[in-house]
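Consider a protein example.
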Amino acid sequence: MISIASELSFRNSILRIMNVSIVFYTNWALTIDKIKDEDPKRAGEVEKFFSDYFEAVEEHSRILGENSKLVYVVGNRTVKKIWIETDIITKEMFEQFGFKLKGIYYRDIPNKRMPSKNSPTNVKGERVSTMVNEYVVVMER
């Protein structure tokens, strides 16, 4: 069975050769496939989150007119030791609606109430970083 990520990678390679620029949430699909290899159930939960997230992006894109700017503040994180680049996924989603990236800026999250490391595997001593930075994605149409 060909994974979504493999199929998208192949399609994007062919389109690049044909000098056609189409992005189909490559980072989203690759990330979901990697998580699926570790835990299919958790991958489904992450996929549902990004499906809902896409609906929000789509609605914001519908409401905002030409010459619009928008700012999304997101947090990248790990799931099953897989790094999820929510900033890049956000950029790719908005590009599908004609937005152009103006910049992605990051800063440390000051005064964070949640721990900066956790143990998602519940194995004693095994810890990974949680969201310690926020990413400010600035787009313009």
